[in-house]
Amino acid sequence: MSRFSEQKVTGNLVNILEERIVPATLHIRDGKIEKIEEEAINTPINPQLPFITPGFVDAHVHIESSLLVPSEFARMAVLHGTVATVSDPHEIANVCGVGGVRFMIENGKKVPFKFNFGAPSCVPATTFETAGAEVTVTDVKELLALDEIRYLSEMMNFPGVIYNDSQVHEKIKAAHAVGKPVDGHAPGLRGDDLKTYFSAGISTDHECFTYEEAKEKLELGMKVLIREGSAAKNFNALIDLLNDYPDDIMFCSDDKHPDSLEISHINALCARAVEKGIPLFHILKAACINPVQHYQLPVGLLKEGDAADFILLEDLSSFKVISTYIDGELVAENGKSFIESVPVQPLNQFDCSEKIPSDFELKINTNATTHTIPVIEALEGQLITLRQDHELPIINGVVTSITEKDILKIVVVNRYFNARVAHGFITNFGFKKGAIASSVAHDSHNIVAVGTSDEAICEAVNAVIREKGGLSCFDGNSTEVLGLPVAGLMSAKDAYEVSSAYTRLDQMAKSLGTNLAAPFMTLSFMALLVIPKLKLSDKGLFDGEKFQLISY
Predict the structure, then answer these.
(1) CA-to-CA distance for 393 and 172, rounded, in angstroms?
(2) Which residues does 1 contact at the CB level (< 8 Å), separation at least 6?
(3) Which residues pair with 529 in a beta bridge?
(4) Parts of the chain with a pLDDT under 70
(5) What is the DSSP secondary structure assignment for residue 359, as one 8-state letter?
(6) Which pLDDT score is estimated for 43?
(7) Domains and CATH numbers, the chain
(8) What is the reported pLDDT for 40?
(9) How far apart are alpha carbons 325 and 310 in whole angstroms?
(10) What element of type H or E holds 105?
């Protein structure tokens, strides 16, 4: 239905701000709610009518992690009642700089969906890795001047905030100068350091993984985002806080793969919160209202004069979406998206040569037969890792993994130029054979791979290199790859085609023996240095607590 036609929509209107539900008719003209005609105040809910609520907002998401360009992400998201996102484009910025941010903005504009992008604050994220670009203070100021840029993206360099790095503080001040909020990123930060971080004017955090940490941040005045993505899952740990802080909590996915997005989005968090006994209007504030108010988004909240951004729900327990409207346009109904695909011209930065198995050997000059090595412990549902130390065998001067004890090799290959491969070891992937590799490797997006042998890792890595970006799996016999030609992060293809290809690849990876729910998503965070404790960059093994590289 065209946004320019006059139309009426009738249902049980859920007035979140006034915490009441009443049968009503929306009168829509030129994409806005011209009038809300309510039944008498005490009129009971009509069980024959759908429920009308504002659309859902994902309060923090990296669109790139869906492996979809924004226009394709929107096609799926509207099926679940999502009308807007608060999107941090620092993934593509780490590869293509400001040009990548502009690509996301322009592609998003081609479809009826409300993308709200941030200015990346930490590109590169650290000096201990090789990124494809730098976003300078000058770049940040230029981006913040754009109407499409709503905030300064997550300030991951919390040591820089705490210890008064001049460029970090200049970026924060630039956002404040134009009245735009600053997103935080401070996993595990507590006490005086947290107070210093917050006092710099940082308003949110989506990295809380314990109830106590999130409560401390809420009591300081920060907004806490409850995250439930394809890898990091903090809903169960944090959801009870919504009982006491309904105005200060939002829902987000952060990183969501296409198979997961095809099934559900923020609507699923609402349904789970109902099951937990959280008051309905608290849930809807987190899902619909709080992000719009905090970021001052151009998203309607079901008031006269607002943009006609709303959804029709079958009920207020399962949150099954009947239809989605954005600016008065019907963009999804009964499981069908009316947003059409648009042409995409890929941009990228990828320039490294194929490798040979010996490139992946970790050689140590010693006469010893074993060597104690720090080993990354990957955790299901978390971005943080733990550290273990293991005695690994040395065979002909090469440190060797122990597949039967689930101590596998992990490598990072520089994708921007030919360089020495970085080596490490990891546990909890559980592979019994083969390897997987990915050029989605937060935050610099070099190639990260885990496997049971140097030969298997080489097969998986070279499959990614040949595609100039992608996800790959080698099962010992054959190799499958999902090419990601847009910055080595996203496909230019139809969302459902990408979701299907990813599902096949995910199943193949799981056939290697892992119990991880999302092995590729977990792999993508093993190079994320700003999340403790132990990670691997293209420059080597990194201690995220001491913020320094570790030598063997």
Answers:
(1) 48
(2) 7, 328, 329, 330
(3) none
(4) 1-5
(5) G
(6) 86
(7) 56-297 (3.20.20.140), 357-550 (no CATH)
(8) 83
(9) 5
(10) helix 98-108
